[in-house]
Design brief:
alpha/beta; single chain; Rossmann fold; five-stranded parallel β-sheet; seven-stranded mixed β-sheet
């Protein structure tokens, strides 16, 4: 009897040990599904010129990012967001004033990199800003998606740079093609003037190449853009354009007031040819010289049916927008979808977000077309070139005259 009792007790003791061991070896289901803090409320940043001559551009983009977050966090429908996607709530954790200055951008990038809660950046706005701040973000493992930086070399020299707009070569190709059908012909003399910055030099190079290929004679010039401490003077270039009989002055710059001054000084010097600026001068308040042209890297968001509720919200809250702003809405959308996809198993980090970003594809957007990235980070969907040309009217308004 005693021997049997001992055997029973021994068996019970072994069973208790097995149950205890099993409980220790298998974590609770609650532990398995608990999400990391970044998958409950992730941080993103925005960086652009929110002060200085190009503040209209940076603030417009910032407000479109904030418009996106309002719709996203409220769970409202947004064109292109996959059905059934579990959205991770986002907060704008840092707004950096990079001032279209590469040194300022590097400082902002350091601030972004040091905040571990920030998983990605909408920006930088300008090409030179990306060249200054991009390497800092590259080292920090942070992806950044711009809605306006168009220099070709950005996608080849920077590791984690992405853009939702066409590059300079595509814009120059469309703009020059329009001019060759509307006033410029083989054998004409033209002047191409860059702004001595990455943006202006890049698009001027592309424009010069296409003009020469068409048999046009090109005089190449450079004039540094205005800054907070200096003012550009184009009078000598204007006189040269008249003296050489130039039929076109093609002058990319990031400062709209510079384009206005250049056009005025050309007129004062007796110039009667064509003047074309590019997207950096798309600002009807600062560049309103009647008869001048402006090429741009996208469409006018006011003309896109899908964008109407978002434009209405933006207008009520912030006032009138420019074509510069809406692409940053889409930049933020690409990031938001990538963050949400990366959180499928409950945890994420900058590296996982970038992996998801590379495969994120929006079938439609408020820009009127879908967006995805190629293996370099360039936009690979949308119109053939995604470029428009506007002509400034007598009352200063911009009339759309060409879409590529």
């Amino acid at each position: 009897m005693r021997k049997g009792l001992l055997a029973v007790l021994a068996a019970l003791f072994v069973a208790v040990l097995v149950v205890a061991a099993t409980a220790i070896a298998q974590p609770s289901s609650k532990q398995v599904v608990t999400a990391s803090p970044a998958c409950k409320a992730a941080g993103i940043g925005y960086a652009g010129p929110v002060t200085g001559p190009a503040a209209f551009l940076g603030l417009d983009q910032q407000h479109w990012v904030q418009t996106f977050l309002s719709f996203w966090n409220a769970g409202k429908p947004i064109p292109g967001v996959p059905a059934g996607l579990k959205r991770v709530k986002l907060k704008l954790a840092l707004i950096g004033d990079s001032q279209l200055n590469p040194q300022a951008a590097a400082t902002v990038a350091g601030q972004l990199a040091s905040k571990k809660s920030i998983l990605a950046l909408v920006g930088f706005a300008g090409s030179n800003e990306n060249l200054g701040g991009g390497p800092v973000l590259d080292r920090a493992g942070m992806p950044y998606v711009t809605g306006s930086a168009t220099a070709d070399q950005l996608t080849t020299t920077l590791k984690r740079f992405y853009r939702v707009v066409p590059n300079n070569t595509k814009q120059a190709a469309a703009g020059i093609a329009y001019l060759l059908k509307n006033g410029v012909k083989k054998g004409d003399q033209v002047m191409v003037v860059d702004d001595a910055e990455a943006y202006g030099v890049g698009i001027a190079n592309a424009g010069e190449k296409f003009l020469k290929a068409a048999g046009v004679s090109v005089a190449r010039e450079s004039q540094p853009e205005s800054t907070s401490s200096s003012t550009a003077d184009f009078s000598s270039l204007a006189q040269k354009a008249v003296a050489t009989g130039a039929k076109l002055v093609y002058a990319p710059t990031q400062v709209a007031s510079d384009s206005q001054l250049f056009a005025q000084q050309l007129k004062s010097a007796g110039y009667n040819g064509i003047f074309m600026a590019t997207d950096g001068s798309f600002d009807a308040k600062s560049f309103k010289f009647a008869g001048a042209y402006v090429s741009f890297f996208g469409t006018d968001v006011y003309q896109v049916k899908l964008a109407k509720p978002f434009v209405a919200y933006y207008t009520k809250k912030y006032g009138k927008t420019t074509p510069f702003g809406a692409p940053s809405f889409v930049s933020a959308e690409m990031i938001a979808v990538a963050i949400s996809k990366s959180c499928a198993n409950g945890t994420t980090n900058r590296a996982k977000v970038e992996r998801a970003l590379k495969t994120t594809s929006l079938p439609s957007t408020i820009l009127g077309h879908g967006v995805a990235f190629d293996n370099k980070g360039d936009v690979s969907r949308g119109p053939a070139r995604g470029v428009t040309v506007f002509k400034i009217q007598a009352n200063g308004t911009y009339k759309l005259v060409f879409t590529a």
